[in-house]
Amino acid sequence: MPELTYYPDEVLLQKADPVSELGTEIQTLSQQMLELLRDAQGLGLAAPQVGRGLRLFVVDLPNDQPRTFINPEIIETSVEESLLEEGCLSIPGTFAGVLRPAGVRVQARNADGKLFTLSAEGMLARVIQHELDHLNGVLFWDHLSQRKRDRLQKKYRAPQSQES
Length: 164
Ligand code: NI
Prior knowledge:
Blueprint: H1 24-40, E1 44-46, E2 56-59, E3 67-77, E4 81-86, E5 96-101, E6 103-109, E7 115-121, H2 122-134, H3 146-155
Antiparallel strand pairs: 1-2, 2-3, 3-6, 4-5, 6-7
The structure holds nickel (II) ion.
């Protein structure tokens, strides 16, 4: 089973590669990521968060079906923005309000390799943008002012840091 990676793991700070081969290996990975996401009680999880530099993420919101996004592209964003609090399984214990477009239109492939387009608003739009950022090595605190980010980074302790 894949395991969570935590900031400042290198894989979280790098741009992920497109998924070139769709098939059982990617289906298994997305299934395992959805299981991990449920166990961790998160809303979304990107492949770099399990140590894989691939353009793939999964989303599982209450009252919605679990969704897999492979090689996703945001093709439209709303002018309207919203401020919502975000956290991240790879930066546990850290939360902040982040301003982003309120709605997005995204194109991606699902776990079966089928191309789809989805218009999302509210929490779904928010999680999609947060997870897509992960594929570009961007973390939610990168959207904050330098001062707010510094404050969060100073307080943050990686779960594995006790080992060293
Ligand atoms: Ni995250």
